[in-house]
Here is the input.
Amino acid sequence: MQTCSDIFLIFPHQLFEGIEPLRGKKVLLIEEPLFFTQYRFHIQKLVLHRASMKFYEAYLREQKITVEYYEDERYLQRYQDHTIYLYDVVDDWLSKKLHRHFRQLRILPNPNFLNVQDSNRFLHHYYINRRKELGIFMDNGKPYGGKWSFDSDNRKKLPKEIRIPPGLLFENSHIEEAKTYCQRFDTVGSCENFYYPTTFGEAKINFQHFLSAKFAHFGDYQDAIDGRNPYLFHSNISSSLNNGLLDLGYVIDQVLKQDVPYNAKEGFIRQIIGWREFMLTVYRSSHIPLRTTNFFGFSRKIPPKLLSGKSG
Here is the structure.
């Protein structure tokens, strides 16, 4: 039975539009240090988190959800005796911290991912399994087009005369507040040219812009690099998928409806249900050795050009 003492924790990467699991609970929106101060982050990352979280706070209040917003970690002591609900945080450090502080954790599946159980360590086979499970691009049990991946058709050289559609820039009151607020942190970079959606509406607009203006060329030039534009024909939806503003199922459905070349559709779906989900599986199984070992024996510091965006 749910009571007013039930607490639901929401972190910066869990801003989902569907809120039924939150009903009847007090929601704590938390500026978790792992997202804000763990490293010297780029300021646009922090502006993205702050602005999208303040939007989400307003959204929840409009939905008559009780919300408390935390810019610190006082909630850890304040609610340690309560029943705590949360989505799987998909983060080892954060998960361990929460288990140390709370005795009663109720963890829900994360809507950000397909949440499949597959220990296959080879991306190609992992991707095939997802295609079969979801019935995407299948023809009587075989891959549409005769092969599973059209990666070899994603490597054309970008013509000099081709027009590259500009990306969308975003401004709203939450972004403006966040730009001021985030000056308190030690960061790199600047706030100029902010390309990241911070609301559900902006996330959908940004995605639809990709579908209408870029998707047709995405397949041919997926692997292309050009100094004129950092995004070229890519979607720029990673931030919105990863923080929950854009629903994974919505993205897949919209992509499948588009009348574009097959190498564009398959190439995009491969990134979403293949590579993205595969990396989650690798993280769950190998996050500690990946984080603590130096396989290649690197010793030099990251050059400043990589932080300034002037690497060439």
About this structure: The first helix runs from residue 33 to 36. The radius of gyration is 21 Å.
